[in-house]
Amino acid sequence: MATAPNVGMVPFVGAPAAQAEAPALLRLAGWRRPALRVLSIGLFFAAWHVATTWDVDFYVRFQNIPTPAEVLEEAVALFGSAAFYVHILASLERIWLGFAIATTLGVGMGLLIGWFRFAEDTLFPPIELFRPIPAVAWVPLSIMLWPTERSSIVFITTLGAFFPIVLNTIHGVEGIDRQLVRAATSLGAGRLAIFREVVIPGALPSIVTGLSVGMGVSWLCLISAEMISGQFGIGYFTWVAYGIVKYSQIVVGMLVIGVLGMLSSALIRLVGARCMPWLPRRVRDAT
Amino acid sequence: MRGGDLTNGATGRIEITDLGMVFGRNSRTVEAVRRFTLMTTPGEFVALLGPSGCGKTTVLNAVAGFVIPTVGRIVVDGEIITQPGADRGMVFQQHSLFPWKTVLGNVEFGLKMRGVGKKERKSQAHAYLSLVGLTGFEHAYPRELSGGMQQRVGIARALVNRPRVLLMDEPFGALDAQTRLTMQELLLGVWREVRTTVLFVTHDIDEALFLADRVAVMTGRPGQIRDLVEVKFTRPRAAEIIATPAFMVLKARVLAQVREESARTLSGPRP
Ligand SMILES: Nc1ncnc2c1ncn2[C@@H]1O[C@H](COP(=O)(O)OP(=O)(O)OP(=O)(O)O)[C@@H](O)[C@H]1O
Ligand SMILES: [Mg+2]
Predict the structure, then answer these.
(1) Predicted complex ipTM
(2) Does the predicted TM-score (pTM) go above 0.90?
(3) Which of A94, A162, A284, B250 is 20 to 30 A off residue B33, Cα-Cα?
């Protein structure tokens, strides 16, 4: 399908061939592959356990790093206290707000810029101008610009997600097959109908890719901003834990960030797949 | 669908007069078509045949309204063509279905654009899908269909608007020989029902002679009409006619002309 070149390329292209060429030892029956994966994770935890209980000091120093058991204990304690949830909720609220604003602006502007030359000439130059500045570099200015800590962090989060979303949307619109536009006009579609029936669905796979990337970047920005300037949030919590020598809390904070990031990406993929039933499953999973 | 009537009352008089088409500007121009004149009678099936790059698609696009003639004019049923419209249905070579719409969604599209209600849309779309033999595939997406089936959807999608003319640009060019033959027969069957004017572009001499009432043989670029061949085989036609002596005679005549034009195209443009 010509409208989703950047999504169509990714999935599993090499997988069958690689499997066929693998030596007999590695060619495993269906149930062994999940088992291998679980084993691999188990090995990671084992290595962590060994390194931290033996206080390995081999250029990399493990003396101050908590053991898996300590982290688990800390996690249980933290999830039992209301204060921890305040941090998580604060971060989730900022992500949600920032991402929602970035999606609205990014998709909206991207569609306009991609489709209308006037919008491209008026809206795109400032985007190109600001794009090279990483969102985190905005933190000091953002603190001065915005009245509250919350709004300044939401601003950083929005900024981070906005660029991948808007650029992917533009890319998606520009990749729309002109023949489909012609087909629509010869079936009686006017300008508005073409925008609604061809441009938006045609750009959708690329938009979803942009949202997926944007979600990742917005977590990155959120955590950085919270570490630099926050008084709440899971990023702030993790940074403060370092300051007050609660090393297990650092790791719990990191794990929570990882899990939340993973869940939000999964959510995007799920919604994306729901919105695009026409794509083959493998392509949808790859966005 | 009232009374199962799928015809548009045999309208569709195309008058292409002195069409000239030049692309590009300043010194880097391409003259695709020059002094191209062709009239069709309502309900006629005309094939456009010619060497690659001679301007067949350009003529078709001009009738569709996708491109504006540099000189000359195109009139369909008394109206000068200035833009695309649902009165001229287009069937492309391939990949022109909306991938995000189901078969039904694709076929309904023209009706939706006209503001026809959902229920009425569905029943009309069903009628045309059954006409092209695709009943049961309403909820499939285009990528789930074979190339031949996709082209049938394309035909149904164009016909649902009851166009005055059906424009087809090598619609079977990407299909294998067997499927192509099936599709040609199917098209003739459909055309007998709808009786709309067809302007059919092809490279394939057999295809042109099998389908059309008249075959317009074009010169190399800039394309103009070199010969208009009347094909008087009785209808309905069966695929077997392409092996008859009468068919061979016509084919030999057209083949000689097409070969001459192809050779001329290779040796450079006409002065
Ligand atoms: N938009 C355009 N801009 C510039 N040149 C064009 C354009 N469209 C067509 N041409 C040129 O006009 C000539 C005729 O093109 P056209 O596509 O009509 O040929 P055709 O007969 O359909 O060829 P084919 O059989 O290969 O499909 C070609 O030389 C082509 O390069
Ligand atoms: Mg062509």
Answers:
(1) 0.92
(2) no
(3) B250
